[in-house]
Amino acid sequence: MINLTIDGQPIRVAKGTTVYTAATQLGIKIPIFCYHDRMPPFGACRMCLVQVDKMPKLQTSCTLEATEGMVVHTQSEPAVDGRKGIIELLLINHPLDCPICDRGGECPLQDQTMSDGPGESRFYEEKRHFKKPIPLGPVLMLDRERCITCARCTRFGEVVAGDHALEFIDRGYRTEVGTIDGKVSDSKFIGNTIMICPVGALTSQVYRFRARPWDNDTVDSSCTLCPVGCSMKLDSRDGEIMRTRSSENHHVNDIWLCDKGWFGYEFASSPERLQTPLLRHNGDLFPASWEEALDYVAEKMAAAKPKGRIAGLGGIPLTTEENYLFQKLMREAMGVNHIDYRVGMPVLSLDEEGVAPGMEMSIGACEELDYILLLGLDLTEEFPVIWLRLKQAINKGAKVVYIGHYAPEIAPYMNEMYLHAPGQGKNILAEQLAKVATGHKAAAFIGQQYLASIDRKPVLAALLDAKRQNSGFKINLLEGKGNSFGARLAGMHPELAPLNERLRTPGLNALQWLDTTAKEGWDLLYVAGADPAAKFPSGLWEQARSKLGFMVVQDLFLTKTARQADVVLPAFCYIEKKGHIVNVEGRLQKLQIGKMLPEGLYSDGEIFTLLAEKLNFSLQLGSDFIKVLSSEKAVFTKRPEKLEGFSTASKASNGDLLAVFAPSLFDSGVRMRENQRLSQLIKPPKVSIHPNEGKKRNLTDGQIVRVHANGNSVTSKLKFDARVAESTILLPLGFEQIAVGDLSPNLWNGIPVKLEA
Predict the structure, then answer these.
(1) Which of 6, 441, 450, 719 could cross-link 72 (Cys pair, CB 3.0–4.6 Å)?
(2) CA of 165: how far to CAs of 188, 344, 396, 589, in Å?
(3) HSE of 155 in the Cβ direction (CA atoms, 13 Å)?
(4) What is the structure's pLDDT at 646?
(5) What is the three-class DSSP state of 297?
(6) Which residue, among 492, 429, 422, has the nearest Cα to 662 in the 3D structure?
(7) 3-state DSSP call for residue 77?
(8) Model confidence at 653, in pLDDT bands (50, 70, 90)?
(9) Rounded CA separation 381/379 (Å)
(10) Which contiguous run of DSSP H or E holds residue 540?
């Protein structure tokens, strides 16, 4: 420990603590620009100057390590004058366009000019002028003349995200922020650079010129666009959503969001949103009143109840409470267990699943790991903010080993990487697990490449065996979408009642229902927040739809499924709801209403309740469920003591390739497409194979090919990619152009496919 004095106040701090940090602990404010407490000290801006006894020059407090007996003065005349000089120099070319700058009102430069600036400048020369603004991407704008070259944005890409999306170009007074080779910034986290920019140099193209911070009404909520469930703030003006921002939560997202969280809210204001219920008449959908629509649905549900051929699908965009009401409407009012939230996701029975999805550790604890095993997980595409937490562990020296079917975006940060075709990685995994010794802060993160394949059980069995040898070894199964964990907890599962109570008489799951309906027909299907027509194999779906008596769809947009419905009911989106979601670690996160509610619409939960009333059924949350929702964490991941399983290795024969289905953060889903600017980040989908596989088949990079499996085929442009394992073909998920759902009802990794020009 070190003893020092700052402005006459003694303080004792750990060795290695900087003067700036020590001063902060005493409540002494020292102005900063380049320093950010989520990155190592840099000392570029010189704004944090202090005077130290026995040191001839002023020192930057953010880089100065405290020493025994040090005496520091933050408010001495030399220190104050030094900081005034820095402000004066920074403003030589700064445009002083505060009345129009989007950063006005929340700008550290503006604030510190008032509190620490000289009040008057000795420089009256003409300032620099640049063409403004420069788009660095669909969501990021740069006003070069405002930049103070603090390097926060470039260092974020280096230290926090690891994507090096922004860099300094040129030197000296010509230095400015740019992108690699002048291309569009390639990042999933660029919104964070806008947040940490201490001036208005980087601004959001989505929010730019829309509002001032003092005009906005702010509420705390959570993002539902992936299972991480990041904490966020919703800003609205005159009832309209203006922007979303990150909210500090050390347990989950720290202070960060991915760009889907930063900019993925425009769909809420899309003119394409459904405004009124629709009823089918003479083959077409026409607007109807709520009373008419709900009466019709209730009539059909009551008529279908005696036979019990009723099913409910969906729930991922719904709150946990709404999922509870949905399953209760199906189970108690209709008397069936034929419900499932897993539309567009792998569908497994509980026995096939073996281990429930979820994490054995908090997301925040990822930063403290020293051994990380990534198994078949493309982290930045599926659970992006978890990567930002793991990157901090890497910065502290953690070792990372990746095993999978293709190399992820974060491959440069892997200490070891092993690529193999589906079904071929048993020995590699055994070798790596043998290295997980007692004492390691070690964890495995398993993704859909193994969880949605024949390798699931043997991989999980091997991990559980390693855990028996090292009880501190954490096993994290990262699968799911949106609020799928909340849907599961609420009982939107054919084998599980709410709170994960196993049912004695399970219902049909999503795929069993599809197959049964295609063969035998069905009376009624209720779809809420899902698009099975776009996810299931088109031929099988069309066959099932032709034998389905009645379908009601509840959604925001006229999806492919909604266009085939008998009744369409419009609903609220996540920024218009109050309730809870459950994230991938089992943590309850709150949702708050962040904008004026669309007139004439209802939430999903209100729709279920209104329908129940018409069916003479009282639909309410159960007391046990309410009790769980009032707790801080809803842990529901269960680990069996022993898991038996075996794998029959997939084999490519007769020129077949083994399919691997790859999710994308920026896919072409309905909500994503309705984000005007964020949708520009969607990259054209391609199927990818190793160049050696292309040569074997006399194919060329970029040509159009057909992929065949199970009697169906899809067409796509081909990409040669050495990051894909040999004998493997990578197929993108979530794109209309390549309907990979036609190839496999369960999107099962390892299915053999044929490729031809």
Answers:
(1) 6
(2) 9, 32, 22, 30
(3) 18
(4) 45
(5) helix
(6) 422
(7) helix
(8) low
(9) 5
(10) helix 538-546
- The 10s digit of each residue's pLDDT in 432-469 is 998 897 778 999 999 999 999 988 999 999 999 999 99
* Direct distance between the N- and C-terminal alpha carbons of the chain, in angstroms, rounded to an integer: 69
> Which residue in this structure is represented by tokens 């703030």?
233
Average pLDDT for residues 95-107, to the nearest whole number?
Answer: 92
Coil, strand or helix at 15: coil
How far is the C-alpha of 594 from the C-alpha of 732, rounded, in Å?
33
CA-CA distances (angstroms) from residue 342 to 338, 451, 500? 12, 14, 16
From residue 212, alpha-carbon distances to 45, 105, 215 in Å are 27, 7, 5
> pTM for this one?
0.95
Name the residue among 746, 176, 222, 701 with its Cα closest to residue 511: 746
Amino acid at 596: M
Q: What is the pLDDT of residues 1-59, one digit of tens each?
A: 999 999 999 999 999 999 999 999 999 999 999 999 999 999 999 999 999 999 999 99
What digits encode the pLDDT tens for the residues 242-267? Answer: 999 999 999 999 999 999 999 999 99
Which pLDDT score, from 0 to 100, does residue 437 have? Answer: 72
What average pLDDT does the segment 719-729 reach?
97
Contacts (Cβ under 8 Å, ≥6 apart) of 341: 313, 314, 315, 316, 323, 484, 487, 488, 492, 493, 530
In percent, the amount of the chain with pLDDT more than 70 equals: 97
Six-digit token pair at 524? 């009624």
The two tokens of residue 352 are 């096939």
The helix or strand, by DSSP H or E, that contains position 6, with its residue range, turns out to be strand 2-6
212's tokens: 């001032």
